[in-house]
Structures are given as structure tokens and as C-alpha cells.
Amino acid sequence: MRTEKQKMLAGEPYRPGDPELAADARRARAWMVRYNTTLAASPAERRVLLRELFAHVGEGAVVRPPFHCDYGQHISLGEGVFLNFNCVILDVAPVAIGALTQVGPGVQFLTADHPRDPALRRDGVESGLPIVIGTNVWIGGGALILPGVTVGDDAIIGAGAVVTRDVPVGATVVGNPARPRGTA
């Protein structure tokens, strides 16, 4: 029988109140209390803390506090990634952000999803799908990246865009829902 955490990471319906998941979330919250007081610390000092929690942190990666996540341990940052203030990563599924990607303030990566069936929602079931961001991507402030989205290398996500589907390599998308620039 699979654990709730195994179900969660496989993108299957799971129960978030599971003791193992609750313990992981408590650990992340305690880490965020420490991390979010490090604004005056150097990026190198903050990287030491990031490596305590994240799955991978590439050389030169910068995450400006405040920062918020569900678990942290499902987040991977490539070399030279930059996440500006107030980034939120709901990592009930893996989130991989490729090298040299720049993320504006207030961007949210939301892997978490909920059943469309109201009875299942009432029952407290959730699910999630991974998010993959390619290399050298630019994501403008306030953008939302939704569950299951893959953004190709060298793409641009306009400020405030709501990205509901995959973005091809080199594309620029804007709006809600995000569409290639110049389309209605």
C-alpha cells in the first residue's frame, strides 16, 4: 500500500492531513521562519539555508526573502536562478526551475490542485502535478504558473500572466489565460 506522500508525489489523490506530510510541512514552516529573517544576509549565506530544505540548489542561485513553500524538499533550482521577493512555491509535486531563470516579485508556482467533484473536495482529498521551467526563462512579476505546466527554454512569461498550459521554447505569453503575444 502506498503512503499519502507517495500518492502526492505521483500526482494521485492524497490526504494532506497525513502525519508524515504534516511533519514535513511543520519542518518547512520552521525553516521559513529562519529563512525569512535573512534579508540582510549575503546570497551565499542564504544558499546554505536553501540547501538544508530544497532538493537541489545550483551555484549562484538567489532567493530573496520573504519566500513561502509547502514542503521545500520538492524544489530544484538550477545555477544562477533568481527568485525575487514574495515568491510562493506550493510544492506538493516537484518544481524544477532551470539555470539562469529570472523570476519577478510575487510570482506563484502552484502544483496543488483539488477535485472537481464537490464530494471529494468535502472529503479533503487533494492532488498535484509537477511544474518544469526551462533554462534562461524570464517570468514577470505577479505571474501564476498552474499545475502540470512546462515552460520551454528561453520563454518569457509576461507580468501578471496566468499560465494554464505549456509554453513552447522561446515563446512569449501574456494575459489571463496566458496566450502567445499578439493573439486574441
From TrEMBL:
<dbReference type="InterPro" id="IPR024688">
    <property type="entry name" value="Mac_dom"/>
</dbReference>
<keyword id="KW-0808">Transferase</keyword>
<keyword id="KW-0012">Acyltransferase</keyword>
<dbReference type="InterPro" id="IPR011004">
    <property type="entry name" value="Trimer_LpxA-like_sf"/>
</dbReference>
<feature type="domain" description="Maltose/galactoside acetyltransferase">
    <location>
        <begin position="5"/>
        <end position="59"/>
    </location>
</feature>
<dbReference type="InterPro" id="IPR018357">
    <property type="entry name" value="Hexapep_transf_CS"/>
</dbReference>
<dbReference type="Pfam" id="PF12464">
    <property type="entry name" value="Mac"/>
</dbReference>
<protein>
    <submittedName>
        <fullName>Maltose O-acetyltransferase</fullName>
    </submittedName>
</protein>
<keyword id="KW-0677">Repeat</keyword>
<comment type="similarity">
    <text>Belongs to the transferase hexapeptide repeat family.</text>
</comment>
<dbReference type="InterPro" id="IPR001451">
    <property type="entry name" value="Hexapep"/>
</dbReference>
<dbReference type="Pfam" id="PF00132">
    <property type="entry name" value="Hexapep"/>
</dbReference>
<dbReference type="InterPro" id="IPR051159">
    <property type="entry name" value="Hexapeptide_acetyltransf"/>
</dbReference>
